[in-house]
From TrEMBL:
InterPro entries: Amino_acid_transport_2. Keywords: Cell inner membrane, Cell membrane, Membrane, Transmembrane, Transmembrane helix, Transport. GO terms for biological process: amino acid transmembrane transport. It is found in: Cell inner membrane. Its main location: membrane. The chain crosses the membrane at residues 21-45, 51-69, 100-123, 143-160, 172-192, 212-232, 252-272, 302-323, 343-365, 371-395, 407-427. GO terms for cellular component: plasma membrane. It comes from Paraburkholderia piptadeniae. This is Transporter. It is a multi-pass membrane protein.
Length: 428
């Protein structure tokens, strides 16, 4: 496998002269593919249920928070001397016990994301096959279908980021094009009443807080930032160059996502009615699967199918890198307490982790838990891992004092909101 070589800089050379390479583009594509996943295809369902004023407020809170929390999360990892998993980075700052505890929270956060994608892939693909009369019944009822589907996706994902650049790259390009095209096509079908329903003042705060996770997940790709950090730091001998390329890729991906996802989300929100959203919630399917059923035109249905499948599959590829790293980090952290690291068979660990992931996902998908519910319940884990912990590190660790500022307080406050958001489901 060839290695992309990037010229290293002398200390006196300006960082702005670092060229933008295919490797940088590949990571930007994976970041965008990670973000355009379950969040974007399920957020219109939540908007359809709660209304436009709730949606606008949740977006106003979440999108600036996403930029700051991802930037803070990434910089705390970049400034760690450890170039490995999240557990290793936290252990470097706070010790092994904190490392394993927060690694478990990180695992739960990523587990919630990857099971969401695995469930969506299984049930949406089965729904499409049945909708287009390719099958007489939903294949999702067959456990072997989900097992085969998950196993194939995991095997592809386990090959590393360079293969994923080649596999996910075309998918992301296609779905990004479809996002813009579908947003434009849906304009004639807009109905202002779908989004600007009368404001329910009594339940407004509750609805905003329960919608925060959906707004967050619509452009979030924090799950892939540590794998990207590790890859760049292993590639570059000069940490300044690695840091510059990581931050540059992060900013480009964020800017592209904000513009495209907002347009797409607004267009869908104006198109899907409250009844359509309720149907999607009841049947555990995405907004795109609803569009394939109710909007006229075979080509619109074809685009919605391609976007849904490509969005979920490419996001699965992105989240797998982070999830595999999280599981592997826990295994290595626990093993290091009993066996010296150099005595561990890393190949056996990798194979065992891959098989365990396939088994976990298969069991979860077979249970058919609500995807919408999972998106809301995992909000607190994102609050802890991506908001509270980086904020705490910036305040406590002397080497991270350069990260302190107003953004840290904003991220910390947003993390608290994510922590309490699932509690408000009890009042629905």
């Amino acid at each position: 496998m060839s290695t992309i070589k990037t010229p290293t800089l002398a200390r006196s050379e300006p960082l702005l002269e670092i060229p933008f390479t295919g490797y940088d583009f590949g990571w930007i594509v994976l970041c965008i593919g990670m973000a355009i996943g379950s969040g974007i295809v399920f957020m219109p369902v939540q908007v359809g249920l709660k209304g436009g004023w709730v949606f606008l407020t949740a977006i106003a809170l979440s999108y600036p928070a996403v930029y700051h929390l991802q930037n803070l999360f990434l910089r705390t990892l970049m400034q760690s001397e450890v170039r490995e998993d999240y557990a290793g980075a936290i252990s470097h700052y706070l010790g092994k016990n904190w490392g394993i505890a927060l690694a478990f929270v990180y695992f739960v956060m990523l587990f919630g994301a990857i099971v969401t994608y695995a469930t969506s892939i299984t049930y949406d693909s089965a729904s499409y096959l049945q909708t287009f009369h390719i099958t007489d019944h939903a294949l999702s009822d067959n456990g072997w279908y989900s097992l085969a589907l998950i196993a194939v996706l995991v095997v592809i994902s386990a090959q590393g980021e360079r293969l994923l650049f080649k596999v996910a790259g075309p998918m992301v390009a296609v779905k990004f094009t479809i996002i813009v095209a579908m947003a434009v096509v849906m304009v004639p079908h807009w109905n202002v009443q779908n989004i600007l329903r009368p404001l329910d003042v009594g339940n407004f705060v509750r609805d905003v807080l329960t919608t925060l996770p959906f707004a967050l997940f619509s452009i979030l790709y924090v799950q892939i930032l540590n794998p990207m950090n590790i890859a760049y730091r292993k590639l570059e001998s000069d940490p300044r160059v690695a840091a510059y390329r990581i931050v540059r890729a992060n900013r480009i991906a964020y800017a592209v996502l904000v513009v495209s996802v907002l347009f797409f989300a607004f267009s869908f929100a104006f198109t899907i009615s409250q009844a359509d959203a309720a149907y999607a919630l009841e049947h555990n399917i995405s907004a795109l699967a609803i569009v394939a059923k109710v909007m006229p035109g075979a080509w619109v249905k074809a685009m919605s199918v391609m976007l849904d499948i490509f969005a979920i599959v490419s996001a699965f590829f992105g989240i797998y890198l982070g999830f595999n790293e999280a599981v592997r980090g826990i295994v290595l952290n626990m093993s290091a307490r009993f066996v010296r690291t150099e005595y561990l068979n890393k190949s056996a660990v990798d194979v065992g982790v891959t098989c365990a992931i396939v088994l976990m996902l298969w069991v979860w998908v077979s249970a058919n838990f609500s995807t919408m519910l999972i998106l809301q319940l995992t909000g607190p884990t994102y609050g802890i891992t991506t908001c509270l912990v980086p904020s705490y590190l910036a305040w406590r660790v002397p080497s991270l004092r350069n990260l302190r500022g107003g953004a840290v307080y904003f991220v910390f406050l947003y993390g608290l909101l994510l922590m309490v958001s699932p509690l408000f489901r009890l009042f629905e």
